[in-house]
From TrEMBL:
Keywords of the record: Transcription, Transcription regulation
SUPFAM superfamilies: Tetracyclin repressor-like, C-terminal domain (SSF48498)
Species whose genome carries this gene: Streptomyces daliensis
Gene3D superfamilies in the cross-refs: Tetracycline Repressor, domain 2
UniProt-recorded name of the protein: WHG domain-containing protein
Domain HTH-type transcriptional regulator MT1864/Rv1816-like C-terminal: 15-77
Pfam families xref list: TetR_C_33
C-alpha cells in the first residue's frame, strides 16, 4: 500500500505538504474522485520534477521556448486528465 502522506508531521508548509493539501482539496471540492487520491501527490511531484530534469539535463534541454511550453502543457494535461478521470 501507499504511505499516508497527509498524516506527515512537520511538512504542512513545505512544498510537498502544500501539494498534499492541494490534492486533498481537489477531492473535497469534487474535482478528483476519492479513489484516485491515494498517492496522487507522488504522481504530480514525479511528473514535475522528472520533466524539470529532462529540461535541465536531458534530451529536452535543447528545445526552443515554444516547444517547452507545448511539452509542459501536454504533460500537465495528461496528468490532470488522469487524476480527475472518473
Amino acid at each position: 500500500g501507499l504511505p499516508d502522506f497527509a498524516s506527515g508531521e512537520g511538512w504542512e508548509f513545505s512544498s510537498f505538504g502544500l501539494l498534499v493539501q492541494a490534492m486533498d482539496d481537489l477531492v473535497a471540492c469534487g474535482l478528483m474522485p476519492a479513489h484516485r487520491r491515494p498517492g496522487a501527490e507522488i504522481t504530480a511531484w514525479g511528473m514535475t520534477h522528472g520533466l524539470a530534469m529532462l529540461f535541465l539535463d536531458g534530451p529536452l534541454s535543447e528545445l526552443a521556448p515554444e516547444q517547452i511550453d507545448g511539452v509542459v502543457e501536454h504533460a500537465l494535461s495528461v496528468t490532470i486528465a488522469g487524476l480527475t478521470a472518473p
